[in-house]
Amino acid sequence: MSSAGDIIRMLGKNIRHERVRQGFSQEDLAEKAGLHRTYIGMVERGERNITLLNYAKIADALNLAMHDLMKDLVYPPPPPKQTSKKNRVVGLLAGRCRFLFIEARPGSGLGVFSPRTLHV
């Protein structure tokens, strides 16, 4: 499950995207919203838990409805993609070896994995 920090960072990323798309600097947006420039930067980086009032001010300064800044925000996020057993094994072995050679034999299912170190 996603943490509150993830949501705050995603919202900040959307605010930054819209600000840049509209050609505003952080200082321009801060002035239009009646907020401090450093506060806008902290919100965009997800360092501040933005209040609903300040969120409304930023959305208004960007001439957007508040829900427009929440597009593509998914909470809770979808579960991580499942990886196959073969990919997990390869990942484990690759993390422990300098080089990994994989020999897949037909009909063996997972295959035969033989980590070997190359000497150059």
Automatic annotation (TrEMBL):
Keyword presence, Lipoprotein: no
Molecular functions (GO terms): DNA binding; DNA-binding transcription factor activity
Q: Which GO terms describe its cellular component?
A: cytosol
Keyword DNA-binding on this protein? yes
Q: Which CDD domains match?
A: HTH_XRE
Residue span(s) of domain HTH cro/C1-type: 15-69
InterPro entries with a match to the protein in the record:
Cro/C1-type_HTH, Lambda_DNA-bd_dom_sf, TransReg_Diox_bact_type
Record-linked Pfam families: HTH_3
Q: Which UniProt keywords apply?
A: DNA-binding, Transcription, Transcription regulation
Q: What is this protein called?
A: Transcriptional regulator, XRE family
* Species assigned in the record: Chlorobium luteolum (strain DSM 273 / BCRC 81028 / 2530) (Pelodictyon luteolum)
Organism phylogeny: Bacteria, Pseudomonadati, Chlorobiota, Chlorobiia, Chlorobiales
